[in-house]
């Protein structure tokens, strides 16, 4: 049972990584002069769209937590709307945090906002898919000893690694190498992406490695 | 400058752009102009108090040649060359706020001197332009007036010289040059293009008039001036000059003289090379010099045999080219060679510093123990034997190094007593380290038998603190991170605030659900996860803590206070963001528009006044709550006095007198404030002493410490420029927020609180507008309330004004920890942590700089940072002494 679960986790994660790789190559078929660095904003939009789509599809296909008891249509719609509001809220709050960290307030506002969008895609969207718009559950997952399944465990790891990646991505900005990727917010978005991918890769392996020690309250 | 432009374009002149080497401060630049050598960074410190110049210089050569030299202008010259001038009038340059009188003081002598004509050299050093730059920057409207004034002075001198030339046989030479440039902000000291490039114009009737392209003048070195002047005056070139003759100047002379001048210059340079480089014969410059000397000989022979021939001219120009190439290589290799490092002294210093650091690190577990005792075991005979052995080895090394070294060595130059003292210190430290190490190893064996407490996981906050410190230390190895160090600190402080907010959320949303188990308490960082609690005593400490914490924090704090706790990290973040946009510092983004510039521009005086008044009000409201009534009144009057002082020197205005033009130096107002500062500090000290006598009165001590803190705040308010007053207000606001809503409810331990204070102190150092660049030091703070330059108060005030952020946070730390009664050893823990956290970056930086000493930016980036670090270390030492004194009073009480 557990091994099959881990396998499913691994496959879904591989699909997420595949969607990010696709977001690098597919737009160049349709758009001229597409490259990650020069048309960075386009890539951000495409990547965010792809990852969100894959997450939604996976959520519908796999349904890791089967707890939908009352599945009336109106309930589903309100749930979906709530999710959208949560996503927007997270985008805006990330934007505020970036400004507090020193991002320019007025100029480059679009860039900063798109960075907030992609970071929300990597963190908030999986949370919404897995846990739903339920703040209490979120707080539970992101506190110590609060996870109750391997899905939540991997969610915790990918989210934290995305944040850490974005945080580390800010480090090379003051260096005077004058590379194109040092421009705000490219290094941060790339850092977040690498962090997300690393989290996706590492979390199934880590769970597999520690499967003997891991005991969840539900199992 | 119409006349100067006319001279440059049409007249008989040569113009260059002379490149000054950093540090671009007055004294080293005068040295470079007159000696042709490259003064080092220590001269920045000596800039304020210049000792007499001992090296060979153009002035000294002229004096020995019996020339009469007259000097008017910056006093630094008189101090550098005492008894060299036949007549002088020095103007002190320390009234940066004055820009008319300093120049009138020079110009008033001019007519008389020009008429007299009984001199050979006249040196004028005008200060006004520099002062205008310091006051209001390079875009000030005052600059234009000053430049036209300087132009008229130049015209006066030039016409007078021309009229005189008819009487004397020799032509005159007028040299117009600047010692350093001016950065975008009007300051100088660093190595940006604007600061390094200076004009150099030589005007003489001996030059040909040639209307050439003067839009792009040739770039030369500032050190070349000394050699050129010496040759022009017919004097020997100063011994240590690394400059080469400005060849266009002598181009009009006959070939024989040109060659002669170049020969003189190359001989001097090659002699200097021989003195400094052991393998000088292999140097390409020296080889070129030998070859050109040989060719020169051939040319002379040819010249003596036959005159005016094509062959002669061709050979001559070949020799010329050869000489110029030799000069270039020689000058280049000399300017890289002269920067020699005194490795032996550096090694000795580094070893002592590293030994102290190792000792501190080794005693971490011991010192953070609840008793906070720092024992230094020094008894066993084995160690004394080791001690004597090490001393013997060190003295042997010292003798060998000092007898074999060719170059001068600072440590060898010390007297034997001092050197011996250093060696005793080094070996004693080594022995202490060895004994502590053995103790740790032996003690480790015994303690390992005890059951180690299982719950020794670190909280996120501790992890962040450790990683942040390590990251900051590592970042000091990269020049960009040193230039932009403020970004590192802002980043770390922001992350700290986010971590704190996460901690508050977890405490208030999850703490309600279940009673956390014993292990979780430690994890949540409520108590120390420091090693101190780990060795055996952790569990009973927890029990004890639980005893007096029985109502859990989430139950005590309800309603509005809970929300304040949750919101305060975000408030602090918002404050930091506002402060960050107040002063843009660093290098890459320093030119960005910031609020500070907007406020200081003369159009926004009203806004600045309102802001300053509000900040002073906030300061009063936040500070008065802890003071006694006497010091409350003193504080109010003192803050009023601060505003009056700023109004008197014209940076802010009163609402009832919007356009007052009478600008004074504000001496009375500033001294008025000083009286209150001293009064508050005195009351604080009195309270502290009283609390020591009356042992039970604990509250009195807290009040005394807060009064000392508020005295320092008042002094900082006086010294800060008006646009920086919000920094002070926000600093107090953040301190209050942190104390009330974060440190007290969350119960951080002393080590964490100390590190947070240190981080905020560092961030506020940069919020003030400081950077790791000499140019941003606000020396005007040293002249508040002083009539003339008095060394000791000026240096102390400048140091306090620069390091006000760290000092205020440290004094708040002392107050906070002694007002908290929960732990008896908190203050000594904090002192130890403060010393450790300050000394780790410094000692690592010393090692880094030593290994990077051939880095391209060693003089422009790393050396100023080293000066800052040294100064910071002194301040830290003072803070630690204060800590220990407070701790002693506590010990005598109990």
From TrEMBL, chain A:
Pathway assignment: Glycolipid biosynthesis; glycosylphosphatidylinositol-anchor biosynthesis
Gene Ontology BP terms: GPI anchor biosynthetic process
Membrane-spanning residues: 9-29, 41-62, 83-106, 112-133, 154-175, 181-209
Topology of the protein relative to the lipid bilayer: Multi-pass membrane protein
Keyword annotations: Endoplasmic reticulum, GPI-anchor biosynthesis, Membrane, Transmembrane, Transmembrane helix
InterPro entries: GPI_biosynthesis_protein_Pig-F
CC terms in the record's Gene Ontology section: endoplasmic reticulum membrane
Keyword presence, Endoplasmic reticulum: yes
Main location: endoplasmic reticulum
Entry annotated with the keyword Membrane: yes
Cellular localisation: Endoplasmic reticulum membrane
Pfam families attached to this UniProt entry: PIG-F
Name of the protein described by the UniProt record: Phosphatidylinositol glycan anchor biosynthesis class F
Organism for this UniProt entry: Rhinopithecus roxellana (Golden snub-nosed monkey)
Automatic annotation (TrEMBL), chain B:
Span of domain GPI ethanolamine phosphate transferase 2 C-terminal: 560-877
One Pfam family cited in the UniProt record for this chain: PIGO_PIGG
Biochemical pathway: Glycolipid biosynthesis; glycosylphosphatidylinositol-anchor biosynthesis
A biological process term (GO) from this entry: GPI anchor biosynthetic process
CDD domains cross-referenced by the UniProt entry: GPI_EPT_2 (cd16024)
Signal peptide annotation: none
UniProt membrane topology term: Multi-pass membrane protein
Family annotation (PANTHER family): GPI ETHANOLAMINE PHOSPHATE TRANSFERASE 2, PHOSPHATIDYLINOSITOL GLYCAN-RELATED
Recorded family membership: Belongs to the PIGG/PIGN/PIGO family. PIGG subfamily.
Full protein name: Phosphatidylinositol glycan anchor biosynthesis class G (EMM blood group)
Organism: Rhinopithecus roxellana
Gene: PIGG
